[in-house]
């Protein structure tokens, strides 16, 4: 571990640009944390009587080892990119939003309810559906921001509770007023017309939601790092009092960041409905909103870092089946690995910073 | 009545399916499968395979299929009804050479099984749940299901003999036809013993809600119910909670007697090894896929748990006698005159609905004697 950090520090010294240095430092920390997680998970596997190398070989094979594996990984990563943004954007305003699942459900439901009536629009049907999904998700998480700014409701608790309300509302509508009477034992909204379905990227077996996810992350990066609005958000999030003193609308910025994050998660719900399920039903509550929290934290709340992180988490999920079938490992194995990843990232950041500082202090300049 | 016409046609259709599976025709699959008597079969579960419930019932049958000569069995648990199951099916086919797949969760069929089946016309997909329809769904897909309401009727007879408060409790997931049919059969079984018995139902809203299931079981016991049963994915919580509260319990899906040896009366269990064997044999011999197969106690799709010590000798004798009648085909559960719990006649006098009747699959009423 310390060897990794030491070489990273050496690289940092050579780097002339401070921004590059900061990026490299973050990268070194993340890579070190991933290595730590891999070691811990390996020890766990040995303790459980398995060969860690065989497990890692299968993880690689299932996640990135073939065209099929990549397809599998990309499909699982696509919704996580959008749900991670639902954590990252509010985090720039200093808020910890963990209820993205509610926005996924609301977005998916709004898109399904609207899409049923858009059969006549042809290829244009997807646009209003996407807007409806983003709007529903945006309003839902925007409400979290509003409650926080106007009523002082803690946003982590507020968003989590609203996710439960969303799930209940979703269930009520899908099993009640919006139910397709023909869906007897699997209550669903009516099947979407063909025009309202999102297809695959030419011959790839991966739906177009992947492109939307990547674009959203890039746009979020530009918004945060290359616009005055993003700068204002950073100031407001970093030090709200200073922000207010220089006249920034701190509260409104936070609500807007929540709304944008919610819109991304709502879009994820719309894509799931339009590309995968073809209707809204309880299968939409697959936990993408919660997995997005993991992705966002591993990506250290950086929109561009979401992309490789989503691939990593998607890949772990994609290879889980192979671990079950080939090695007879229980499904929970993958959860253990994800847990190690999450904890290592959280623990590693301060740990590596402390180590790096100590090394810097010891070496005379 | 249009309903009875439909049921007759389905009965003929079932006969044709059975006949078809017996006659080994050279179908398009025979080429792929005739080479050697080997078959790779994939089993996919929506929850953990040791859940004492729905998934365990499938896994127990899969374990028996695994022992058959020439069979390679693949298993995956906790596979969500999303792209996850599509990719699991494809992965079983692409990486492990699966030729027959059992996606066992109801929600897997539309759109997931249908999408993957279209991509792999040479692979067979046998879905559990009974959604396949002739002319609508492809021939390399099919459905199998069991009339487990027969088991719940027997549970009801056992409960009717064991209950002292004359109040039974039912913890149910969702108010959908499958579940309502079980609640009704359970209640009717109990009321065949004593017409003054009533059943209280609590819906938890979803298939796996352990906390709500515990709350519901506690609440039912608080309301005076002394025999509980359920229809949720894993009956573990309901069985354990009932036993802890001193109530008796009837099992569902799999055998839960180990969880409450003293409180367990009997249980309604799936016996999936019957349809599994039919489908595996057809695939191995290259016969056309049996697309729509169903059965109850008589056909070996359903079984009952051994009697627990809490059920009296008289109670055991009564359940066994009812079971014999079912096995002989001499008992129709749903027959008129039958009223629902709002006093409305749901089956007219003189009408008998056979288990195959499609009217039963759209059930949207609770029988007289059910409160909830």
TrEMBL record, chain A:
Chief place where the protein resides: membrane
Single annotated GO MF: transmembrane transporter activity
Annotated compartments: Cell inner membrane
GO cellular component: plasma membrane
Its membrane topology: Multi-pass membrane protein
Membrane-traversing stretches: 24-46, 53-71, 126-147, 156-174, 206-224, 245-268, 274-297, 304-324, 336-356
Pfam families in the record: BPD_transp_2 (PF02653)
Taxonomic superkingdom: Bacteria
This protein's UniProt keywords: Cell membrane, Membrane, Transmembrane, Transmembrane helix
Protein name as annotated: Nucleoside ABC transporter membrane protein
From TrEMBL, chain B:
Domain (ABC transporter substrate-binding protein PnrA-like) ranges: 39-305
Single GO cellular component term: plasma membrane
Keyword Signal among record annotations: yes
Keyword terms, alphabetized: Signal
InterPro entries reported in the protein's UniProt record: ABC-Purine-Binding, PnrA-like, TAT_signal
PANTHER family per record: ABC TRANSPORTER SUBSTRATE-BINDING PROTEIN
Protein name: Nucleoside-binding protein
Source species of the chain: Plasticicumulans lactativorans
């Amino acid at each position: 571990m310390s060897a990794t950090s030491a070489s990273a520090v050496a690289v940092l010294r050579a780097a002339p640009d401070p921004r590059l240095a900061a990026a490299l430092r973050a990268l070194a920390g993340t890579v070190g944390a991933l290595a730590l997680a891999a070691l811990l998970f390996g020890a766990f596997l040995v303790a459980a009587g398995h060969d860690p190398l065989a497990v890692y070989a299968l993880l690689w094979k299932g996640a990135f080892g073939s065209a099929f594996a990549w397809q599998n990984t990309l499909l699982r990563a696509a919704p996580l990119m959008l749900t991670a943004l639902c954590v990252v954007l509010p985090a720039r305003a200093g808020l910890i939003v963990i209820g993205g699942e509610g926005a996924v459900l609301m977005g998916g439901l709004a898109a399904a309810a609207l899409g049923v009536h858009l059969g006549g629009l042809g290829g244009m049907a997807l646009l209003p559906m996407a807007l409806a999904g983003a709007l529903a998700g945006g309003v839902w998480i925007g409400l979290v921001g509003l409650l926080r700014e106007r009523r002082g409701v803690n946003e982590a608790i507020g968003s989590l509770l609203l996710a439960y309300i969303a799930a209940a509302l979703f269930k009520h509508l899908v099993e009640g007023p919006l139910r397709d009477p023909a869906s007897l034992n699997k209550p669903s909204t009516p099947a979407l017309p063909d025009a309202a379905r999102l297809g695959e990227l030419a011959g790839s077996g991966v739906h177009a939601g992947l492109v939307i996810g990547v674009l959203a992350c890039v746009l979020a990066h530009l918004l945060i790092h290359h616009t005055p609005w993003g700068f204002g958000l950073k100031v407001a999030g970093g030090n709200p009092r200073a922000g207010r003193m220089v006249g920034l609308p701190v509260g409104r910025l936070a609500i807007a960041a929540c709304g944008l994050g919610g819109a991304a998660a709502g879009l994820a719900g719309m894509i799931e409905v339009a590309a995968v399920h073809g209707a809204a039903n309880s299968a939409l509550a697959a936990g993408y909103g919660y997995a997005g929290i993991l992705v966002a934290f591993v990506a250290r709340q950086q929109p561009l870092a979401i992309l490789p992180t989503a691939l990593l988490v998607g890949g772990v999920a994609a290879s889980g089946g192979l671990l079950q079938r080939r090695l007879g490992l229980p499904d929970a194995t993958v959860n253990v690995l994800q847990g190690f990843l999450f904890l290592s990232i959280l623990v590693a950041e301060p740990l590596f910073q402390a180590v790096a500082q100590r090394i810097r202090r010891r070496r005379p300049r | 009545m249009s309903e009875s016409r439909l049921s007759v046609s389905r009965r003929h259709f079932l006969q044709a399916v059975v006949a078809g599976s017996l006659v080994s025709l050279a179908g398009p699959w025979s080429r792929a499968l005739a080479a050697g008597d080997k078959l790779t079969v994939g089993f996919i579960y929506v929850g953990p395979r040791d859940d004492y419930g729905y998934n365990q019932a499938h896994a127990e049958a899969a374990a028996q299929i695994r022992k058959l000569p020439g069979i390679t069995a693949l298993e995956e648990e906790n596979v969500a009804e999303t792209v996850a199951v599509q990719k699991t099916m494809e992965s079983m086919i692409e990486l492990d050479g699966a030729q027959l797949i059992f996606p066992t969760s109801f929600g897997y069929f539309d759109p997931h099984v249908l999408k993957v089946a279209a991509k792999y016309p040479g692979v067979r997909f046998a879905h559990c749940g009974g959604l396949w329809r002739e002319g609508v769904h492809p021939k390399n897909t099919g459905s199998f299901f069991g009339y487990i309401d027969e088991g719940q009727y027997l549970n009801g007879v056992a409960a009717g003999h064991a209950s002292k408060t004359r109040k039974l409790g039912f913890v149910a997931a969702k108010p959908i036809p499958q579940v309502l049919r079980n609640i009704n059969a359970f209640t009717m079984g109990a009321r065949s013993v004593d017409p003054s018995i009533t059943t209280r139902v609590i819906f938890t809203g979803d298939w796996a809600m352990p906390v709500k299931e515990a709350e519901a079981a506690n609440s039912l016991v608080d309301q005076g119910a002394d025999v509980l049963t359920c229809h949720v994915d894993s009956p573990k919580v309901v069985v354990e909670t009932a036993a802890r509260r001193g109530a008796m319990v009837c099992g569902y899906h799999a055998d839960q007697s180990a969880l409450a040896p003293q409180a367990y009366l009997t249980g309604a269990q799936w016996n999936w090894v019957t349809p599994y064997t039919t489908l595996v044999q057809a695939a191995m011999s290259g016969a056309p896929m049996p697309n729509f197969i169903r059965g109850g106690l008589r056909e070996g799709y359903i079984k009952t748990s051994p009697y627990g010590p809490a059920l009296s000798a008289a109670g055991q004798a009564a359940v066994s006698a009812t079971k014999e009648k079912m096995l002989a085909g001499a008992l129709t559960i749903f027959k008129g005159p039958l009223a629902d719990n709002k006093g409305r006649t749901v089956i007219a006098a003189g009408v008998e609905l056979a288990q195959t009747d499609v009217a039963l699959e759209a059930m949207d009423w609770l029988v007289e004697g059910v409160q909830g």
